[in-house]
Structure formats: structure tokens, C-alpha cells
Design a protein that fits this description.
heterodimer; A: mainly alpha; MetI-like fold; B: alpha/beta; Rossmann fold; six-stranded mixed β-sheet; 10 strands
Chain lengths: ~220, ~260
């Protein structure tokens, strides 16, 4: 019976898993793009940029994820027809950007100032030196903490359930409602999927880390 | 006056950190082919001064001219000027994420707009010149300090600079490595390179410098030929410094003798 509850509903769990993966990828991409921009603005920007970036960062780190989800979905749907998936990607993506900006800012700060000086000394412009010298080193330093952030966001996609995104958690919930029970088994199946996804992501990012490894570069 | 002949002119240079004056009214000229040594006690402002000469430190007063271009002008194209001035750092500052080869080719490709192939030819030539043709694919962390410093000299030379600035190039090296770096620098002397060298290697400065600046507390106390500064200093402070070093060296030798 229990096995049937899981087995017969595997397609639904798979569908939910696909949405969970898609949401994670979209929100992390948003987070990387916005997060590096914020991190660069905080590291190199003139003071208005620096302040602006810091304000955005503090704001998105201070507001609880569920409040952000409600703001971006119910708040925006008042004047624009936003899908719950887009609202979730935006809310969680911007929140992740705020956390990622601190990872990137720290990684940029960890690159010794002599690297920038040496780059400028051979005639590279400041932006060129940032792109060619500072960022490649900073991003390598960032992979470790970024992996933690990615895993934490993967799990936080389950919060999108609250605004009706039919991801893994909501599919599990549907299955429980339709089967009058097997609560433990169904939620355990969902938990197992999150575990597998986490292991896969860790493995994938570990491979990226190994591939980018350079002798003498200390990694966390 | 004789400005058109000088490769570099420095006039009334001032640099402050917070309220402390680190470089105080420094002026000198540098002729093409000249080798100028800058010596003085730690904290005299030698490194800050040399970093002002290619704009790595913005100045608070005075001017630096390279040929007829004022490097300290508000609108100076510093990137273009720096490409003409080689700079060697005390702690090498090789790009840690790049191979030795890419350390040397980067400036050629990005600044001189050379093709990758041409840049690699130049890199191989320059690295052979400093005796590291076999380290092209190594990363900086895989090299000794002396090897890293020689790569950093090759990186600077590849840009075909008109002038090389050395900021204590051997201070971070173990005694065995010092010799290999000084050999490369002697070779440059022989080739007629124009150089300004901040160093504590007094014997080397005495041997190669045409002109020596002795600095204390940010100011030039005495300028003269190596012979004058090291053997017939006119200023009491210079004499005390040179004698102090001589005494320290004798002390070292005596220590080695007693510990042996």
C-alpha cells in the first residue's frame, strides 16, 4: 500500500522535482548576476553605488523569505499578472543575490592588493585588471561558500509552496491529500529527493572546483 | 633646462599618508641609460617614492615627468605611461592563477594588442633570458622566490620598457636566491637598461649605480656618485648610515665565525 502510494505517484514527484530544479537554477542564476553586480559595486563603486548596493543587500537579508515571496507574488499581482514561479524566482533570487554579494565581496577582498598593483604596473586599466586578475582569483575562492549557498537555496525553494508553485513539496502535499494518509512515507520520499539533489549538486560543484584548481591556491 | 635630454624628471615630490609626510620635496633627474640607486634606513620613504614614479601611489604635490609627458597630471594616460615603465615588486606579485607563460603574455596581449602567438614567442625569449625557459607551464606557487622574482622581471621586460623600477627586489628572498636575481639585474646593466633601484644590497648598488640617493625621513639627504656616497660622504647622516652598515656586516662575519 505504502509502496503504491509512492510508486503510482512517482510521475507527480518527478514533475515536482523538475520544477524544484528549474526554480533553483533560475533563482541561482538571478542571484549570481545580481550578486556579482552588488559585490562589485560594494568593492569598487563610488560611494552612491556602494551605499545603494549595501542598502539592497541589507534589505533582502533582513526580510524573511516567506514575506518576500508574499510581497513579490501577492504584492505584484495587484498591478501585474505575475506567475507564482516568476515571483518565487525573483523573491528568492534577489534574496540569494544579497547573500551571494557578501560571498563575492569577501572573495574580492581576499585577493592581495599586490595583484591589482602588478596588473596596473604593466599598463592594464582598472576594469581590465578586475576582469583578468581579481575576479578569476576571487571566483575560485568563492566556490566553497557558494556551494553552501546553492544547497541552502535548493532547500528554500520548498518555501515557494506557500504561494502555490507546484514544486516537489506541493506535489508531495497533493499526494498525501489524495491518498488519505501515508503522510510519513510520502514526505520521506520528498526528503529523499532533496537529499539526492543536494548530493548531486555537491558532487557537481566539487568537480567544477577541482577543474578550476590551480597549484598554490588555498581553498576552503 | 636640460629637460629634453632626461628620460625622467622628478620635481618637488610630496606624498603624505594621513598627516605624516612620507616623501618630502624630492627632486632628481634620470638620464637615459643611467642607473640610480636609492638607499636609506627602513621607513625612509624609498618604496613610496618609487611607487609614485609610475603612479601606483597618487602624489600630493610636485611632478613626475617621463620624457615630455607629466605623469602626475590630472589627465595623464597612466595606463599608457605604465606600459613604458617596468616595475618589479619586493614580493614579486606574480598573478597566482596564471602559468608563468600567461603571466608574461597577459600585458602583451591586453596592452600591446599582440597576437597570442607573437606574445608567446616574446615570453619564451624573455623567460630564457632570465634562465627560466623550462618553467613556462609552472604556476607561481611551484617556483622558488628567486625564480618568481625572475619571472616578474621577465614580465616587465617583455613590455620593452624604457625604464625599469626595482622596489627592493631581493628583500623577500633567501640568501641563495638573491644571487640569481642580482645576476639578471647585472645583465640588464650590461645591456644599458635605464634603472632606478631601491635596495639594501649595498655592495650591488655600489657596483652598478651611476648615481645614489640617500634618503632619510622622506627627504634626500645626499645625492652623488656611488664612490662619493659609499666612500666620501659629505653628510654626517650618510656617513653614519654607511658606517653602521659596515659595522653590521663585520658583526655578521664575526657572529658566523664564533658560531662556526
Amino acid at each position: 500500500m505504502i509502496y503504491h502510494a509512492i510508486w503510482n505517484n512517482l510521475p507527480y514527484l518527478a514533475e515536482g522535482t523538475a520544477i524544484t530544479i528549474a526554480l533553483t537554477v533560475v533563482l541561482l542564476t538571478t542571484g549570481v548576476v545580481v550578486g556579482t553586480t552588488l559585490g562589485l559595486a560594494q568593492s569598487y563603486g563610488a560611494w552612491p553605488l556602494r551605499w545603494g548596493a549595501t542598502l539592497i543587500e541589507r534589505l533582502f537579508r533582513a526580510i524573511p523569505a516567506v514575506v518576500l515571496l508574499f510581497l513579490f507574488y501577492y504584492g505584484i499581482s495587484g498591478f501585474y499578472d505575475i506567475s507564482s514561479f516568476s515571483a518565487a524566482a525573483l523573491a528568492l533570487g534577489l534574496r540569494s543575490a544579497a547573500y551571494q554579494s557578501q560571498i563575492f565581496r569577501g572573495a574580492i577582498a581576499s585577493v592581495p592588493s599586490g595583484q591589482m598593483a602588478a596588473a596596473r604596473a604593466i599598463g592594464l586599466s582598472r576594469p581590465r585588471a578586475i576582469v583578468d586578475i581579481v575576479l578569476p582569483q576571487a571566483l575560485r575562492q568563492a566556490i566553497g561558500p557558494w556551494t553552501n549557498e546553492a544547497l541552502s537555496e535548493l532547500k528554500d525553494t520548498s518555501l515557494a509552496y506557500t504561494i502555490g508553485v507546484v514544486e516537489l513539496m506541493r506535489q508531495a502535499d497533493y499526494i498525501v491529500s489524495a491518498n488519505y494518509g501515508h503522510t510519513l512515507a510520502v514526505y520521506s520520499a520528498a526528503a529523499a529527493v532533496y537529499l539526492l539533489l543536494s548530493l548531486a549538486a555537491t558532487w557537481l560543484l566539487g568537480r567544477a572546483d577541482a577543474r578550476l584548481r590551480v597549484p598554490g591556491f588555498a581553498h576552503s | 633646462m636640460n629637460g629634453s635630454k632626461d628620460l625622467m624628471r622628478v620635481s618637488g615630490l610630496q606624498k603624505r599618508f594621513d598627516n605624516k609626510t612620507v616623501v618630502n620635496d624630492v627632486s632628481f633627474t634620470l638620464a637615459p641609460g643611467e642607473i640610480k640607486g636609492i638607499i636609506g634606513p627602513s621607513g625612509a620613504g624609498k618604496s613610496t617614492l618609487i611607487r609614485c614614479l609610475n603612479g601606483l601611489e597618487p602624489v600630493d604635490g610636485g611632478q613626475v615627468w617621463l620624457d615630455d609627458i607629466e605623469l602626475t597630471a590630472r589627465r595623464a594616460d597612466l595606463d599608457a605611461l605604465r606600459a613604458r615603465i617596468g616595475f618589479v615588486f619586493q614580493d614579486f606579485n606574480l598573478f597566482t592563477h596564471l602559468t608563468v607563460r600567461r603571466n608574461v603574455t597577459l600585458g602583451l596581449i591586453r596592452v600591446k594588442k599582440m597576437s597570442r602567438r607573437d606574445a608567446e614567442t616574446v615570453a619564451e625569449r624573455e623567460l630564457a633570458r632570465v634562465g627560466l625557459a623550462n618553467k613556462l607551464d609552472a604556476y607561481p606557487a611551484e617556483l622558488s622566490g628567486g625564480q618568481q622574482q625572475r619571472v616578474s622581471i621577465a614580465r616587465a621586460l617583455a613590455m620593452e620598457p624604457e625604464l625599469m623600477l626595482f622596489d627592493e627586489p631581493t628583500s623577500a628572498l633567501d640568501p641563495q636566491s638573491v644571487g640569481s636575481v642580482l645576476r639578471v639585474m647585472r645583465q640588464l646593466v650590461a645591456e644599458g637598461m635605464t634603472m632606478i633601484i631601491v635596495s639594501h644590497e649595498m655592495a650591488f648598488i655600489e657596483a652598478v649605480a651611476d648615481d645614489v640617493l640617500f634618503m632619510v625621513d622622506g627627504a634626500i639627504v645626499e645625492e652623488g656618485s656611488a664612490k662619493q656616497i659609499f666612500h666620501h660622504p659629505e653628510q654626517q647622516a650618510t656617513r653614519a648610515f654607511i658606517d653602521g652598515i659596515a659595522a653590521a656586516m663585520v658583526g655578521d662575519i664575526e657572529n658566523q665565525a664564533t658560531s662556526a
